[in-house]
Amino acid sequence: MRVAVAGGALQGLEVTYLARKAGFETLLLDRRENAPATGLCHGFVALDLTDRQALTRALASVDLVLPATENAPALESLVVWCRENGMPLAFDPGAYAISSSKSASDDLFRTLGIPAPAPWPECGFPVLAKPDGESGSQGVEVFPHQQALEARFGSGLPPGWVVQEYLSGPSYSIEVIGRPGSHTPLQVTALEMDRDFDCKRVLAPAGLPSHLTGQFEETSLALAEAVGLSGILDVEAILHEGQLKVLEIDARFPSQTPIAVYRSTGINMVEQLARVFSARDGRPPEPAPPRPPKGTVLEHIRVCEGTLSVCGEHVLAEAGPLHLEEGFFGAQEALTNHAPGKEEWVATLFVDGSDQKDARERRDRVIGEIRTRFGVSVYRDEYPPDPIGQGQ
Questions:
Q1: Is residue 242 scored above 70 in pLDDT?
Q2: Are residues 134 and 161 in the same domain?
């Protein structure tokens, strides 16, 4: 199968890696010739995704188009072009329209009775503010008290912002793939954030108790049916005072968690999506049963001037083309721009073990090896600040 990956940034990096693991040939489309995923693809075409004529020339011999971008005009262009040309598109614009709006998603949670953060001003402080149309940690701000919120926004919030209670606790993610009436929840992963609330580390398996895992799976299936999902849905939740509360949903291919799930279980979400959108009867064939899960740690690092920092995935976005390297200082694999003699570089490390404890121990040895080899004297692995303490 020849898959066109539309977008070469962080989502494109994820899709291209998994497509290669599935044995697919990849054609990457991006306007940037040095996008991160250009180091992994089989073929590359530099183009503007809103240019329909350029799409016609580039997509003449592909079997499936998989969007890896959140640019609205680009997505609209791909939807129209694929519809007009009868090309399978692994994307659900209706579900995405709901998930890409935090206010619309919050309305859906309330309608379904799904536990979620309470909206401000119905909640107390601290509160979290985020732009309505951004995904993940983009634009997230936390305010410990009323004075801090008013100093930022004045007496009222500008249009396009959502403010809700700030919840503390571990974060988890799950993906659902399929079509209405036939959705499958995949492995739950644990997420760890940097000080800017950007995900820096993914752990699989998550270690979530079985009864909470079952609840999370049921919630994700209910959300998938509610949005009429054909494709993939990522659901993120936080465990606060013993209860899972849904933070957000995204009906697009996520970054970070799919690779962790693949390395832990062997389930390849790109391969699963290809099954969904190529099934003649509208239902994907039953996948092979997953193997017993291995422990996996996926994390992003930056090495510069004697400092090793564990960072959110944003450090990869402007790092230029990344390549896949096996046996990277003890890690089974890494996506990196490292090269001999390079003083500043980034990497996403993939470290596997027999279970999560073993994977963490192996990960520690990998970090130790890198520190030794590069003379790293400073190690930084920061977490979000505590807004509750700031508000006292």
A1: yes
A2: yes
**Dist CA 304 CA 319 (whole Å):** 13
Buried b (16+ CB within 10 A) or exposed e, 110-140: eeeebebbeebeebebbbbbbebeebbbeeb
The residues facing 346 across adjacent strands are 302
| 274 and 172 assigned to the same domain | yes
Residue 245 lies in a domain: yes
CA 122 to chain centre: 30
CA angle at 162 for the pair 157 and 167, rounded to the nearest 5°: 120
- From the CB of residue 152, how many other CB atoms can be counted at a distance below 10 Å? 12
Same domain as 249, residue 210: yes
130-169 pLDDT tens trace? 887 666 667 788 899 989 988 888 877 767 888 889 999 9
* pLDDT score for 342: 92
Distance CA 299, CA 101 (A): 28
Read off the tokens for 31: 């306007």
User: Residue 119 gets which letter from DSSP?
Assistant: B
